[in-house]
# Entry
Amino acid sequence: MLKDLYTKYKVFVNGIIFSVMPFISFILMEFYEHNPFIEIRPVAFLFNILLFELLAWIVYVFTGRMKWAVRFILIAAMIFGMINHYVMLFRSTPFVPWDIFSIKTASSVAGNYDFMPTARVIIVTVIYIVLVVLAHFMNYRMEMKIKLRLIPGAIITVVLCLFVSALQNEDFQTDNYLYPFLFTPAYMTKVNGMAVTFAMDMAYIAVDKPAGYSEENARQILDEYKNDDNGQKEDASEESDTNNNEKMPNIIVIMDEAFSDLSVLGNFETNKDYMPFVHSLQNGADNTITGYLNVSVCGGNTADTEFEFLTGNTMAFLPAGSIPYQQYIKDTTPSLASYLKGLGYETYAQHPYNASGWNRETVYPLLGFENMAFAPDYLSRDVIRNYISDKTSFEKIIETYENKPEDKPAFIFNVTMQNHGGYTDTYWNFTNTINAKGLGNDALNQYLSLIKLTDSDLSSLISYFKEQDEKTIIVFFGDHQPNDTVASSVLAENGMDYSNLSTEETYLRYQVPYVVWANYDIQEAQNQDMSVNYLAANVLKTAGVPTSDYQNFLLELQKDYPIISAIRTEDVKADTDEEMLKKYKILQYYRLFDQKGDN
# Structure
């Protein structure tokens, strides 16, 4: 009897079962991170289901096999959910479309993270696997021939594309209470759902021209900031003569992986100071400038801080979570390196890890670096945990300085690797020396112990250059704070919940210390806070090196907007004229996409 009923209504029964599977796939995918029934907004909930249904039906119509379509949607949702879970765990931000370009970089450091699944991850994954196995019994086939299935398949595909386009429309987002703010991607994903958020984010893979943009307009703005009185050349690509070169200092920049002072989050007690040397500089030291940088990333995406420093551009005008090194720098792009090269500097980029990381081997020459060194070039090395130590990295700087051309100053840009996450494993070659009292967080202890090593190595590097005759300026800063695994206990100690920070509390997670030190007389200063995009221009001004038109613009912009990052824009007074911000957007677009081969 049941068999007869099934035979009579099999199309209807299979249609119901098939339609339920995308819904289940979506729910399970969200459960990797949270309870979707509680946190996803109602309309967004329905939109996620619709996306899954459309995808499932497209696969079903084109393949004609129900079990293939069910398996596809289940496996795709499982993989997407697991990727998002671990990206959130390690980076504190969700998986976004442009992360696809980072697969090579992510795989190169994956072995240093703890992928031990939680009970929730295990349960959800087991349910997925069971459903994939049960899909074997869904043998219903579409009897329509493939030629006839092409038309409905194409129609459903067009509907999906139109729906995704609607999700990316601002009016549609507003009318349907979708959360559109990219600067809080974790919350955006939590209330919109992963699929809807991913579809919304796809609109930002390309960058639109700002209002009022033209190449001619950009060049006119730059012309306003040319300053020949300070010795700046009209064409920075021309070589400066030897006499000018001798007057210019060597510039050494160290962007230290994950170096930060978590005391900005609040007080916590340790058995001893984890960065005594940097703290001594911050308390006032000869020929030293200190302060905090406001960066655009936290827990990862190092290349974004690197991009902001080297170019003077800001992630505030680019899609949240994007990586310019992988998405936008495809041709020669003006940077600090190309500018200093034009002034007669020998330019060096150094990173004691894989050349493919963040596409650096391709990007560095496009930014104007003439010499590059990656992991294979560090022949004599110390390894801390699984990474080349900062000590070795700093020794490479000294080696480069001692072997540079005598008639040229050096610009050395060094990106370290020692302090990279994760921080939960134990290592035969590393023992914690710092203990955060009463917090019971081994990841925090390991992190602070690494910072202590870096602090000591920086002291040794500066001691070396104190004894050198050539004028040298050293710039040292962190790229971002560590992830929530490390910082959560410090936040909790100070009454904050890492998953529910206020706006002001969130700002604290994007602050890292910086130091500018010289072995010759410069004006000392403390508490000189700024965002990363301004740092290079300020360094050149401090060093007495001529600044470019763009750097002059940034120095002027900084007077009204001391902080511009993907996280915050801070002006000095409430009625600040926004005309400068509009100019900044125009100039950034010009330099990133249209200005080639000059500065």
Notes: The longest strand covers residues 511-518. The domain at 236-526+549-594 is CATH 3.40.720.10 (Alkaline Phosphatase, subunit A). DSSP finds 24 helices and twelve strands in the chain.
